[in-house]
Predict the 3D structure of the following.
Amino acid sequence: MTQPAKKRIAFLLPPGYAGEFIKSFVQAMPAGVDVEIIPRSKLGMPRVGLSMWRAFSWSDAIARCTHAWRVRKTPEYFFRFLKAIIQAPLYFARHYRTVADYDAVVIFNGFRYNQMTAAMAARDLGVQTIYCELGFFPGTLIFDPKGINYGNSLPRDIADYPPADDEAYDVYEELRSRLKARQSKKALQQKAIKLPEKYIFVPFQVDVDSQIAFYSPWIKDMEALFEALEKLTPYLPEGWAFVLKEHPERIVDYSHLRARADGEKMIFANGNDSVELMKNASGLLTINSSMGVQGLLFDYPVITVGQSCYSFPGLAEHAGSLADSIDLIKHIDRLPVDREARVRFIGYTQKHYLLPASLSDPLSPESAEKVRQQFTEFLGLERSEAYTKVGS
């Protein structure tokens, strides 16, 4: 009997992610799948040919390369912009030659210009792309064949999620009880402040993040978010306030915004624990942060002003403009919360989508099993032939 041809996967590895995680990932692959780890330094020589350039999107490359320069207009970021514009087509040509030899390519994130060009090349060559990214909750990763963030494969209709059973409710309650903030070496060293009784928590995001660059049509940076909040304060219910916290990985100095905050309706709480801010809030407003998903664990309204995979009826409210935001803030104390829908979403993503894993540690046997199942499905392999137990 003829054996089916092996599937070949290229894992395009960004700098700094080698080690035990990668070894365990390779070992977790289904039978009949070979993985080659390709660091950036090992990409092939650029392919030369006119036909391939039909797949190169200058508009996407320029959007990615210019975003950081637009946020930080400094000489350093200008030269970074020039370097990226020059390197993007070169990376595309190198990726075009490299990924042509594989059935699938795994890309981390996919929005940085060097990763984006790999996806462009794979798409034109008919090579399947599988994206890897940090998950919604600390200590989780995702692999998704469609994309990440708003571009991922999760359904956008709560009716497409399984009913909430006892297991889903148990997962929901357990997550809520053990939720912790991601650790960051750049955490802001400021004192915690006393919080108002009723407030809407507003976590800042990183201005140059792909979530802002590609999935935030009307709020282009944190200054624009702050200005929108200033316009919303007159519509807050009596006694309510916005409590803001800067992202620990921020690259912009927001001292001028802290000086503008009035301390009554607009309050910065950079020294307070993010999870405690979420737990004690009466609402959460975000562009499209993963904290919005975490906010679904609490019985209050979540509002997104950017595009997100969790902003649809039953989970969160979406404001596509300032006028939409005003209408939602005016009624924030009366917005309905569908706990059963949230349990369905959280239960499904925990069981079937998110992978308990860290890029700095080897996969646990349970996580390796989940990776094996996911890639069996992604690659269209027959489960009976491709699926083997960890350690077999």
Summary: The CA atoms of residues 182 and 284 lie 18 Å apart. Confidence is low (pLDDT under 50) at residues 384-392.
